[in-house]
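Shapes recur. Our protein:

. . .
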Amino acid sequence: MRLIIPTFLLLATCLRTAVAAPLTIITEHSPPASMRGPDGVITGRATDKIREMMTRTGTEYTLDLLPWKRAFLMAQTHGQTCLYSTSRTPDRETMFKWVGPTDEAEWQFWGRADHSFPLNTLDDARKLRIGTYLGDARDEYLRSRGFNVEAVSNDLVNPQKLLLNRIDLWAVAIRNGASYPGHPDWSDKVVPLMVFHRVKVYLACNPSVPDEQIDKLNAALAEMRRDGTLTRIDRKYDQAAK
């Protein structure tokens, strides 16, 4: 019996350590949700929400900004790693444990202001060349439905391709309060044409993250929604965009 009790104590200590393990949190450059400021600090609408969740739960974490495809792969393959802002789709449901939603987004088709083709329904885009972002949910969504997609590793290449008539449409994700997603010089040449889908976005965590930790983060987010913190963060960035 004297040998058994220390064994149980050691096991309990290990379990507590696993639950309290720091998180590696990653995101992409996607203003105003996530971006690196002039001082090098990662900020943004979604980032502020994530940081507040970590503070309220006493979670230790590191935060880094990476290209989306690399970040998405890391969240799938690295333990204790979470990624935001991630669209929650049926294909991804079992890949991650989910905290959220932290925000909502519209998926829009953007095109040249002088486009000549009709675009009233999603099916109208079936024969058109659609620029997408490699590894993104929009690319997966359209590709799986048989659309003619051309993926690039840098999403801001797509408006340039539009202006050169190398694609007909650009599939864009616009989150609440977001401004024009491209360069200001293109704002009168590349314009939104149609909303083709709406999604909610989350903090997506590797399955190795304990359920208890996920539950605490979701509870903190629910409290932030009740006490008005989420609304205050959204208004902060809405006002900054004006």
